[in-house]
Amino acid sequence: MSGGGPAGDVLLDVRAVRRAFADDRAVDGIDLTVRSGEIHAIVGLNGAGKSTLMRLALGMLRPAAGSVHLRLPGTDAVEAWHAPAEVWAAVGHLVETPFAYPELTVTEMVVAAARLRGMPASAAVPAARRVVEALELQRWAHRGTGTLSMGNRQRLGLACAAVHAPRLLVLDEPSTALDPAGVVLVRAWLRRTRDAGSGVLVSSHHLDEVARTADRITVLHRGRVVGGLAPEGVDLERQFFAMVHAADAAAACDASTGSGA
Ligand SMILES: Nc1ncnc2c1ncn2[C@@H]1O[C@H](COP(=O)(O)OP(=O)(O)OP(=O)(O)O)[C@@H](O)[C@H]1O
C-alpha cells in the first residue's frame, strides 16, 4: 500500500462494459471505478484488455455494451463517448506512443498541451515550468522534442498529460521506457498527484512496481476482471498467476461443457 488517504468520490465509473474486435472479446464485461485520491492499477498479460479498457474510458472507443461514465467535479456525469470538451479539460492521458511536434522544444510542447486543454497562456507557461521540473526534464527544456531519448520522450508525454492538473489521469504503462531513477521519480510524482486529490488509472506489467505505487490493483485476463491484489500483500506474482490459471481452467471447463458465454 502506498500510504494515501481515504479515496473520495467516483470519477470514472465503468459498468459491464464490452468491446470486441471481430471475434476477439478484448473487453468482456468489466466493472471498474477510479476515485479521487487513489491510484488504481490494472495488471494483466499481453492482450488482457488493459489498453482497450483505457481507450473506452477515454471515449476513444465506443462500448458495444455497458457504460463508461465520467463524474468529474463541477460537471454533470456524462458518458465518455459523448463527453464534451469541458470534461476532457479535467482529464489527462497517455495511452499511446507519446506524441510530440518535432519542431517544438520540450517547454513549447508542454505549453502547447496546456493550451490545447484550455489553459490561458498566462497560466500555461508557469504550469509547464512546474511539470518540467517535477519530471526532471529541465536539462532538455530547450531541446527539440525530436532529439529526446525514449525515456525522456515518455517523461515528456507524462508532462503533457498532466500539465493542466487533471482530476483524472489515465496512463498506459507509463514507466516502460524509464531507467530506474525515472521509475522512482514517476512513482513519487504519481503519489503526489494522488495526494493532491486526483484519481489515477494506471496499467502495468510490473507487479513489484505496481505494489509500490497503487492503492488498488485489479487483475484483468482475457477481457475480464479475474481478481484483485492487495498492494501490501506478499508473493503477488504467485497470486497473480493463480488467478490467471483459475480463469483459464474455468474457461476450458465452460468450453468442454458448452456453457461458455
Ligand atoms: N484496433 C484493434 N484491432 C483489432 N484487435 C485489437 C485492436 N486493439 C486491441 N485488439 C485486440 O484486443 C485484445 C486486447 O488488446 P489490448 O491492447 O487491450 O491488451 P493489453 O492488455 O493492453 O496488452 P499489452 O499488455 O500487450 O499492451 C488483444 O487480443 C488485441 O489483439
From TrEMBL:
<keyword id="KW-0813">Transport</keyword>
<dbReference type="InterPro" id="IPR003593">
    <property type="entry name" value="AAA+_ATPase"/>
</dbReference>
<dbReference type="InterPro" id="IPR027417">
    <property type="entry name" value="P-loop_NTPase"/>
</dbReference>
<protein>
    <recommendedName>
        <fullName>ABC transporter domain-containing protein</fullName>
    </recommendedName>
</protein>
<keyword id="KW-0067">ATP-binding</keyword>
<dbReference type="Pfam" id="PF00005">
    <property type="entry name" value="ABC_tran"/>
</dbReference>
<feature type="domain" description="ABC transporter">
    <location>
        <begin position="12"/>
        <end position="247"/>
    </location>
</feature>
<keyword id="KW-0547">Nucleotide-binding</keyword>
<comment type="similarity">
    <text>Belongs to the ABC transporter superfamily.</text>
</comment>
<dbReference type="InterPro" id="IPR003439">
    <property type="entry name" value="ABC_transporter-like_ATP-bd"/>
</dbReference>
